[in-house]
């Protein structure tokens, strides 16, 4: 697996020239839900540096899950084309979640290369895009590029240089070691920043929630494309840290996606269907509060299968 550093692709005019000569289009797609604090700077940076100063990115798309703040308005004012996820392919059953937004972004985008960037990054710089699309422009054998980085963890007003990516280290890394050791070299398997060729993305199923990134890696490895995956060091990613209750639901969704693939690939046999009800407990004042919510994590089919039946 090839590893890069984003600084290797710091010559933006050269990258833009390679892109122009190849005739490829590049789409930057950002899934959002209540990201008013950060989305403006992300979109503005891409527009100013990678569109106006250096013509590398052809379109900036924001796919929103129904933000209750002014995320969509800020993104549009900063220069993005904004879509409400529910308005894309409205004839299909509606789902909400990150993977749903990414799948629908693939449908409405026009790029030959799709670069996904999360909308909550507070230290965004152009390397989040150039470091991911650069390997695809300069290495034709590469199909999919994952980001990795240091992930600080914030506790109130304090910040620790490590400790982020808790679900990756506590849940995903052990499962990879047990069942998918071929993926052990992926440094940030759940990173939300990655770029890929359209044909590759259109061949993959998209779980509608947080399971989308690990599903892609498992399915690419199953299809014999591990050697076509690369990763780029973006140094550091600072974002809004999730609380334990939210991370618990995320882990539940991830487990459902992984267990389905383990059964599909004949690695385990499930005696009963997986439940969709996630149950948790939390301290509430002087008592303990029980909560439950349904996290079904359905999957959107590979886009190329949808296009074939259209």
TrEMBL record:
The protein's Enzyme Commission number: 2.4.1.266
Region (Disordered): 289-310
Location of the Glycosyltransferase 2-like domain: 27-147
Alphabetically ordered keywords of this record: Glycosyltransferase, Magnesium, Transferase
GO molecular function ontology, one term from the record: glycosyltransferase activity
Class of enzymatic activity (EC top level): transferase
InterPro entries: Glyco_trans_2-like, Glycosyltransferase_2, Nucleotide-diphossugar_trans
Cofactors required: Mg(2+)
Domain of life: Bacteria
Entry similarity comment: Belongs to the glycosyltransferase 2 family.
Protein name, UniProt field: Glucosyl-3-phosphoglycerate synthase
Organism, scientific name: Luteolibacter yonseiensis
């Amino acid at each position: 697996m090839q590893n890069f550093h984003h600084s290797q692709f710091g010559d933006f005019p050269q990258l833009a020239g390679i892109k122009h000569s190849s005739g490829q289009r590049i789409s930057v797609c950002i899934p959002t839900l209540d990201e008013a604090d950060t989305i403006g700077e992300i979109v503005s940076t891409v527009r100013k540096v990678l569109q106006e100063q250096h013509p590398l990115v052809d379109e900036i798309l924001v796919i929103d899950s129904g933000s209750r703040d002014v995320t969509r308005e800020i993104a549009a004012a900063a220069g993005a084309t904004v879509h409400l996820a529910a308005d894309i392919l409205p004839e299909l059953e509606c789902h909400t979640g990150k993977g749903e937004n990414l799948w629908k972004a693939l449908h409405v985008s026009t790029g030959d290369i799709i670069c996904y960037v999360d909308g909550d990054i507070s230290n965004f710089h152009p390397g989040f895009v150039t470091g991911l699309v650069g390997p695809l422009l300069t290495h034709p054998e590469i199909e999919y590029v994952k980001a990795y980085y240091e992930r600080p963890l914030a506790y109130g007003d304090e910040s620790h240089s490590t400790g982020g990516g808790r679900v990756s280290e506590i849940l995903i890394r052990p499962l990879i070691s047990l069942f998918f050791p071929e993926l052990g070299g992926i440094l940030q398997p759940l990173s939300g920043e990655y770029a890929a060729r359209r044909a590759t993305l259109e061949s993959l199923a998209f779980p509608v929630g947080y399971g989308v990134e690990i599903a892609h890696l498992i399915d690419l490895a199953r299809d014999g494309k591990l050697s076509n995956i690369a990763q780029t060091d973006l140094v550091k990613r600072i974002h809004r840290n999730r609380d334990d209750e939210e991370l618990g639901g995320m882990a539940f969704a991830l487990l459902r996606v992984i267990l389905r693939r383990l059964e599909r690939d004949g690695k385990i046999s499930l005696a009963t269907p997986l439940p969709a009800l996630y149950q948790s407990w939390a301290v509430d004042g002087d008592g303990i509060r029980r909560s439950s919510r349904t996290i079904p994590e359905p999957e959107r089919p590979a886009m190329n299968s949808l296009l074939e039946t259209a």
